[in-house]
Amino acid sequence: MNATHAANDPSLPSVVLAELKMGGFSPERLGEAQVFCEAFFARVGGGDAHLHTPVQWAALVGSLLEFMQQRQHGSASVRVLNPADANSGRSMLQIVTDDMPFLVDTVSMIVSAKLQIHAVIHPVLKVTRDASGKLLSLGDAAGQGESLMHFEIDRVADAAEQEQLTAHVEAALDDVRAAVSDWSAMRDKALAIANELPQRKLPIDAASVQEASEFMNWIAADNFTFLGYREYEVADAEGDRVLRAIDASGLGILRANERSMAPRSLRTLAASELPQSGSTDAIILTKTNARSHVHRAGYMDYIGVLQFGADGRAVAEQRFLGLFSSNAYMARPQDVPLVRHKVEAVLARS
After folding, report:
1. Is the dihedral of CA 139, 141, 142, 147 positive or negative?
2. Residues 276-295: pLDDT tens digits?
3. By CB count within 10 A, which of 181, 235, 282, 302 is most buried?
4. How far is it, in rounded angstroms, from Cα 231 to Cα 221?
5. What is the pTM of this model?
6. Spatial distance between the Cα atoms of 340 and 331, rounded to a whole number of angstroms
7. What percent of the chain has pLDDT over 70?
């Protein structure tokens, strides 16, 4: 059977299994291969089936099964391979990790920054492993979901470039894992702040406090993709006011320490306009100067919730980093807390 025939042949998984059997796969490994092929080829579109001959698909499946044999829970296995046929002009980026949101779009974002993506195959399989990460079974309903991602991309011939691509993908997947793991905790923080704001002593009127509270409830209602959270305290240092990170307060991509945890002057931050007194805003909304490595390209959105002392000066900040969701961008400005008052004021003046 040639590759053209394979493109429209629903028996391709059976043909691949036959090739694997001829290649010396053990009965035990063939059982794994059957489960794998059913999941894998179900995600191969008719336009992609012709990319390889059945013999090549069999070699690819056998290699991926070998790649899956060992993986520690809580980490991603990532590799870049070049087919023996240098004329193919392709490399293969392959990843095995715990199944979670944002995987394919995150990896696609990292790869497409420099390379063209020609094909993506992304089955999710139920996998059982022992404590050391060794594969015990595929397809067991009681297993944990694992994502296998196979990308065919522009050829990456240089070993150093392969290592760099692998490192970038691993770092991005670490961010995905941190953000997804702490998503619920970050959302709970936003809801808790929404409930607490009316009880806090704020140098703003009751209507503004209510608006800030409604905004925090609004972002928690699927209008914001939470990526990171951390708390900061304002302190006096050598005649300057600085913002100092509070130990162990970080969640998501801010869970780990910053590259420099030294206190930073308020004048150097996006929050440099922290009010000294008589503020009309308890929430800072701006963009960071750091691009997201998760889900969607672009500069991350920054939401800073301020806390004030008895003198009306800001004493702390609760900071959220993330991305406003498509729901948020599709909403009418008149329906978005904080924003709607500004829109109404502009309309009134116009």
Report:
1. positive
2. 433 447 888 888 888 899 99
3. 282
4. 22
5. 0.86
6. 11
7. 90
Q: Which residues pair with 314 in a beta bridge?
A: 308
Under the banding of pLDDT at 50, 70 and 90, the label for residue 258 is low
- Copy the structure tokens of residue 345: 């004021």
